[in-house]
Amino acid sequence: MVNYSYFPGCNLKTNAKGFEKSAIAVSKKLEAELVEIPNWNCCGTVHTMTADNLMKRIAPVRVLARSRKHVEELENSSQDIVTLCSMCNSTLKIVNSEVLVDPEKLEVINFQLEDDEETYSSDMEVKHFLEILRDNIGFAKIANKVVKPLKGFKVTPYYGCMLLHPEEAKIDDEEMPSVLENLIESLGAEVVFSPLFKYCCGSYHIVSDEDIVTRQVQKIIDSAMIRGANALAVACPLCAYNLDQQQKMLMEKTGKKEAIPIFYFSQLMALAMGEPVEINHFEDHKIDPRILLKELKFK
Amino acid sequence: MSYEYIKFGQEEKEFIKKIEEISGQNIYSCYQCGKCSAGCPFSSKMDLTVNQLINHIQMGQKEKVLQANTHWICASCLTCTIRCPREIDVAALMEAVREYILREEPEKVKIADIPKDVLEKLPNIALVGSFRKMTG
Questions:
Q1: Is residue B97 part of a domain?
Q2: Average pLDDT score over residue span B22-35
Q3: Does residue B97 share a domain with residue B35?
Q4: How far is B8 from chain A (nearest CA, A)?
Q5: What is the arithmetic mean of pLDDT over B54-69?
C-alpha cells in the first residue's frame, strides 16, 4: 500500500462530496490510498497571471509546505501531493514550477510563512489523481479490479481547460489527450469522442454572467449527445456544476427534454469496482445519474 | 477608406509599460496572426477580438482597451496561451488589463449585490474564482 498526501480543496467537502468519497474508496482498492492533509487551506482556485503580485501565491505555497510536512508523517509515501480537483491541480502546479525556477520569489513568500514555521523548499511534486492512475497504478490493474463492467455506458470524456492548460500544469497532451479515454475503456464503457472535449464551460462566469455559461454548456452537451453519448466524465467540480446545473436550467426554460448525467471519473470507477452506490452522492446531481443506471439495468 | 490619427505620447507609453509590467509579457512580440481569437471559445461574445485588443494595447489606445468587454469575457481557459506561435501568455495580457482596472476600481462584481439565495446555491469554487478575477 502506498499512501499519498491528498489535498481536497474547498469543493470536495461541499457540493462534490461524491467525487471525494468515490475517489478515496477506489484509491484504497488500488492500494494507493489518498490520505487527507490534516490542516489544508484554499489554494485560491484560479492561478494569478500577474507578474508583479506575490500575495496571491502565498496560499498555494502554504498548501505545498503543509503537504511536505504531511508526507514526513505518512508511512510508505512519495514526495507527491495529489489533487482531485483540476483547478487546484493547475494552481498548485503552476506556483510550484514558478518558485522552482525563481528562488527569489520563494524567499519572499517564505518570509511570510516563517512565523508559522511553514516555509517551503521546492521539493514536492503536484500530481492529479488521474496521473497516479495512469503512471503509478496503470490501466491494466484498474481493469483487473472491475467487477461490474460499465456495459451500455457511452461516455464522452470532458477534460475542461485546467487539466490540459497551461504547459506547466497539463497532465496529458494538450490537443490530443488520452488518459480519460483509456480509463473509461478499462472500466468496460464505450468512449464517445467529442471535439469539444476541452471547450471551456464558462467557469466562474456562472456568478455574474450566467448566459455565457449556458451557451457553452449547450454546445458541449449537444456535441456529445449528437454523437450518441449517454454520459459525460469530468474531473473538475466547477465544470460538473455548470454542466449539470445549466442542463437542468435549459430544460426548465426551453422545454428541452433530453439531458445527460455528469459523472466524475471516480464515480464511474466506483460503480465498476462494485463500491456501494451511496458513496457517489448522486442525490446531489441535478440530472440524476441513477436514471441512466436504471435504464441500463446496472445493479 | 478612413484613417485614424493615433497619438503616441508619454501617456500612451506609460499605459503600455504598465500592462507589460503586470503581465510580464512583451506586447510587441505579437504579430497579429489572430490565432488567439480564432480558438477563443468566447470570441463571439467579445466586442473586440483578443488580437484586436492586443493591437490597441500596442498602439497605446488606453480608452479603447478599457472600454472593451474582451478582458471581462475572458474566462482564463488559456487556450490562446498554449497556442500562441509567439509564445505570448495571451491570457496574462487579459488579466493585466483586468488588474489595471481593478487596482483603481476594485469592484467589477459587487458581492453585496448578489442575492443571498444565489450565493448559497453557488459552489465555493465559482465564488472564489469569480471574486479573484472580478474584484481587486
A1: yes
A2: 98
A3: yes
A4: 25
A5: 97
Domain ranges of chain A: 2-130, 147-295
Q: E strands of A110-266, at which residues?
A: 125-128, 154-157, 190-191, 231-234, 262-264
Interface test with B, best of A12, A57, A94, A205 (most B CBs within 10 A): A205
**Taking a C-beta distance cutoff of 8 angstroms, is the pair B93, B15 a contact?**
no
Tell me if B54 sits within 8 A of B27, measured CB to CB.
yes
CATH class, domain A147-295, is: alpha beta
Same domain, B90 and B118: no
Which of A83, A207, A234 would you mutate first to test chain B, the one with the most B CBs within 10 A?
A207
Q: Does domain A2-130 have CATH number 1.20.1050.140?
A: yes
Residues of A in contact with B41 (CB under 8 A): 199-200, 216
Set of cell numbers at residue A222: 449537444
Strand, helix or coil at A262?
Answer: strand
Mean pLDDT value of segment A16-45? 97
> Quick check: A2 and A32 in contact, CB under 8 A?
yes
Specify burial of residue B39 (Cβ count, 10 A radius: 0-12, 13-18, 19+): middle
B117, part of any domain: yes
Q: Does the residue B99 lie in any domain? A: yes
d(CA A280, CA B59): 54
> Residue B136: closest CA among chain A residues belongs to which residue?
A56
Q: What pLDDT digit, counting tens, does each position of A150-171 carry?
A: 999 999 999 999 999 999 999 9
Partners of A7 in beta bridges: A83
* pLDDT at position B3 over 90: no
What is the rounded distance in angstroms from the CA atom of residue B43 to the CA atom of residue B34?
Answer: 11
- How many domains in chain B? 2
Confidence of residue A245 (pLDDT cuts 50, 70, 90): very high
Give me the residues paired with residue A126 across strands.
A81
Any CB–CB contact under 8 A between A147 and chain B? Answer: no
Chain B residue with Cα closest to A45: B129
Cβ <8 Å between B130 and A207: yes
| HSE of A223, CA atoms in CB hemisphere, 13 A | 18
